[in-house]
Prior knowledge:
The chain is mostly helical. It has twelve helices and two strands, in the order αααββααααααααα. The chain has helices at about 1-10, 15-30, 65, 85-100, 110-125, 130-145, 165-175, 180-190, 225-245, 250-260, 265-280, 290-300, and strands at about 80, 85. β1 (about 80) and β2 (about 85) form a beta hairpin. Mean pLDDT is about 80; it is low at about 35-60, about 70-80 and about 200-215.
Amino acid sequence: GALWMCIVLNPHCKLEQKVNWLKQLKKWNGVDVCPGEDGNYGNELPNLTNALPQGANANQENMGQCKSLEYQHLPARNFLEEGESYLMLAVEVALIGLGQQRIMPDGLYAQEKVCRNEEQLISKLQEIELDDVLMKIFRKQAVFLLEAGPYSGLGEVIHRESVPMHTFAKYLFTSLLPHDAELAYKTALRAMRLRVLESTTPVGDTSRSHHIASVVPNRYPRWFTLSHIESQQCELASTMLTAAKGDGQRLETVLESIQKNIHSSSHIFKLAQDAFKIGTLMDSLPDITLLKVSLELGLQ
């Protein structure tokens, strides 16, 4: 059903194609087995066309399909299959779109558009109250994105110039945290990386710490929005530090991630200040572990 929705959302298809697709879907809807390659058979597929706005626009960041789903206009109680609403499907497609791995485009305008589209879609998602049913979708997509291959921006291996997932991961983290803390941290920690700033061409033996300074960085691509991206990375780290207060093991894991992935000294210093503030709130005793984190980051 989700795949068919992406097909029907194609802004370049002609009206007669949509009419033919609708006939095919109605035909398949009448049989109870999965369709073969000849297209003569089919399982029960939801009729999605009534949920889709006409003339949807797609863009090069693969977010246009997702952004065109105006959640507030979708009939949440009009069920596609048992227990499945248009709202649920729209949320799931939005999460899929946000989590896709995509290469940062060239040019200032295109790069700003990537950030703007992502933030607009997340802002729309934040308008929705997440109930137990929607949380199941969040869990499913978070697990899928962590385990997926090159399709996913949260996969184990990503391209060096892949658009970072910091902003999306912060939203996932805060949404998942009250329901599944382990998955929330796993997702956020995976998203902390910023491959474009990593040095990848070693000179000599890098197995010993004193040789790390000899690593020669490759050519950095022209990322005009890099300062904004690094700020979002810092925000994600600060959000995890705040949530991990009182949990020494989680704080140690977050500290290691910060030390490994954040390359800006000013942002590391800001996180040292954040850790100190969080650890010395007036309404509680000082959190010794957070103060140690603050010291470690300050020294770094």
